[in-house]
Design goal:
Layout (H helix, E strand, L loop, with lengths): L4 E4 L6 H12 L13 H10 L1 E7 L2 E11 L2 E9 L8 H16 L3 E7 L3 H9 L3 E6 L7 E7 L1
C-alpha cells in the first residue's frame, strides 16, 4: 500500500511550500530549468487558472503536476517529484490523477512537453502511454518534444 496520496490542491496558503518542492525537483537539470526563476507571484497567478494535483505523505508535499485546459486537451506541466520519492510510484499516481482530471474536464487527451536533452524523461512518459507528436523550441530555452496520450 502506498504511503502517499494524490489530490487536487486546495491550500493556497501553502503555495510557498509547493514552489519549494517544484524547485527542489527541477534543481538537478542542466542546463538549469526556467522553473527555478519562477516566484510565488508566478505560482499564485497559475493557481487561479490551472488545477494543481499534489502528492503528499502525511502532511508533506512530495510531488505535483499542474494541469491546464488547452485545445481540447489537458496540458500537463511542472511534473515534479522530490528525488527521495522517485521510483516509488508517485509520478505514476500523479499521471493517473491527471487522467481522471482530464476525463472530468471532458478532455480527449493529455499533452505535455519534455526537453530533448532529457531522454530518460521521454522514455518515462512513453512507458505511461505518451507518444511523441512533434518538436519545437521556445526562444532561449532547450528544444523539446511534444507528447500526447489519448484517453
Amino acid at each position: 500500500m502506498a504511503d502517499f496520496s494524490v489530490a487536487r490542491w486546495d491550500e493556497p496558503e501553502r503555495l510557498g511550500e509547493l514552489l519549494a518542492v517544484v524547485h527542489g525537483a527541477f534543481r538537478e537539470f542542466e542546463p538549469p530549468s526556467g522553473v527555478l526563476k519562477e516566484t510565488l507571484a508566478h505560482l499564485t497567478a497559475r493557481f487561479r487558472d490551472e488545477t494543481f494535483l499534489v502528492a503528499r505523505s502525511g502532511g508533506a508535499i512530495i510531488g505535483s503536476v499542474f494541469c491546464a485546459r488547452k485545445d481540447g486537451a489537458l496540458y500537463l506541466t511542472r511534473m515534479a517529484v522530490l528525488p527521495g520519492w522517485r521510483k516509488r510510484g508517485v509520478g505514476a499516481a500523479l499521471m493517473q490523477a491527471a487522467v481522471e482530471e482530464a476525463r472530468r474536464a471532458g478532455a480527449s487527451r493529455l499533452t505535455l512537453r519534455v526537453r530533448q536533452n532529457l531522454p530518460g524523461n521521454r522514455a518515462y512518459f512513453q512507458k505511461l502511454g505518451f507518444a511523441v507528436t512533434g518538436e519545437g523550441a521556445d526562444p532561449g530555452r532547450p528544444p523539446y518534444f511534444a507528447m500526447e496520450r489519448a484517453l
